[in-house]
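Chapter review: from sequence to fold.
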Amino acid sequence: MDTFLVQNTSDLNGCIEISGSKNACLPLLAAATLLKNNITFHDIPNICDVYSFLDILKLLKVDCIYKNNDLTLNFDNFKATSLVDSLMKTLRASYYLIPTLARNLKRFEISLPGGCGFANRPIDLHQKVFASFGLETYIFENKLVCKHSELHGTTFEFPYKSVGATVNSILMASFIDDVTTLINISNEPEIMCLIKYLKSCGIDITYLDSTVVIKGKKRTLNITNFTNIKDRIEAGTYLILGALKGNPLTIKYCPIGDLESLFKLFDYLNVKYEINDSNVTIYRSEIKKSIVLSAGPYPMFPSDLLPILVSYLGSSNLVHVVSDKIYPTRNQYVEELNKIGYTIVIKNNDIIIFPKKNDCEKNIIESKDIRGGASLIIGAINSNRKIKINGINYVKRGYSNLLNKLRKIGVNINEEN
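The token string follows.
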């Protein structure tokens, strides 16, 4: 098991450049596969999830060349086939390939998606969406069996916001020669990036107030280059680290407009920062106010940033209460933070952060998901002790060149196998 060893770290300073978005690039790769669009994507992050997705694309005979954050895909030898493979269990986004298979096969099977195991994450909403298009699905022996005779457009209203189901519904609608109306879709920046790409390929898409109308199949353009958006969760992680230890810390290419909720929180807490174009310089700032905050769908505070925020709030002398409306049980990291001196209690899915530090002084903790692992790294930096973090491969799935970026700004951190 790969581990990070974090040792006594003083104030941090320097510059971190934000990479391309993990949560945006995987839907883009799925969309290019759906359209068989030979293309070069720019600013694709150097993370494990990208490599896993490319390994899956190779099962479909897609030629992939990845170099210096540029990814070229060629579909000349593409061949659709069922995807029953252990690779599918390595990441949640593998189910974005279901529309591609539905376009090319009347019947197919696909292994159930994997990813972080921090919560029960059923795919029943996806199945309802697929059914509305005429794609019948059922689960059998850890596989999703899919079949159809004829696919058609639909009008579907989402009962709640779901990024994954929104992606799959947009992809399905994009190749069906019919009109589809999707109501109450997720409107995260990553969804807007997908819509922008599809429109640039000639797909007729109209978006307004969480409703999207898609006139599918007709594709009038064949673009050869597209640039991914910047990763707002990576940027938010380093901004929070800067508020904890920055002396100062500068975040370059920060997607400021996508992080409005975080900057509003910083303003409430009187965190000192300066914005210059797309660069943010942030200073260590003591927390002098308690907060009560709920994370939820965009534009609410990002669920993926909540574990990182908890590590920062635990550095204060005040009580804070936070909760996650999307993944209310994503809290495995709390027990690990308590092992290194935090005092955090979970009550009715509320996470209550107390100022009193407990007497626990363990020096080995374990990461169990991407964002929880990032929370543990920040917690270890905050502890000013020697902390060993196991299971760090989870974190590598979501943060590009993590070790080098942390070392560059002064974090005393090493990797051990």
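Two observations follow directly from the output. The radius of gyration is 22 Å. The first helix runs from residue 22 to 35.
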